Predict the 3D structure of the following.
Amino acid sequence: MLGLLSSADHLVYATPDLELGIREVENLLGIRATAGGQHPGRGTRNAVIALGPAAYLEIIGPDPGQPTPAWPRWFGIDNLERSTLVTWAAKTDDLDRMQRVALANGIPIGEVRSGSRRRSDGVLLSWRLTEPSNGPDNGVIPFFIDWGASPHPSQTSAQGAMLTELRAEHPDSERMQRSLRVLGLHMAVTPSHQPALIAIVDGRHGRVELR
């Protein structure tokens, strides 16, 4: 499990209303998320909490300061009725290789894209990632991200929380575990009627479960 946690770059907690999501997480962890920034052209903005020295929780929701995009927002945000832990991002310094491995093994991960956002202090963060999908395996199979020369968001995120466990549920748990192993990730996946990502986080209010 320690190997898996060291591979986790961030968890994505998507919400239909960003301020609502921030309050929900604050009530659970006792930590007020740091304002992140806008995702230009994506119609979203975020807030962040460090989950250790090189991982963080991203709370993401619609950005009323941007026009509604012509395409669906990532993570199914347009159709959310409640906040939920929708997916996670895994670290890599070779996105193109990860995409080749995934495609060769029939594992659906998105095209390699670039993204950016500007922090509240004016610093521009930029990254490359495999584009997240809203497919049935999303949440268990992560997307992959490379921050390049940008500072990692955990360095300037609200402190006080630690990710201690990450696991999943899925109707086809054995297939999911095989796919994760091909990608170099060893996460426990148990059978369930619906896919779910579950994170155990230690915060100022003690240990909590996010799903």
In short: The two ends are 18 Å apart (CA to CA). The first helix runs from residue 2 to 7.
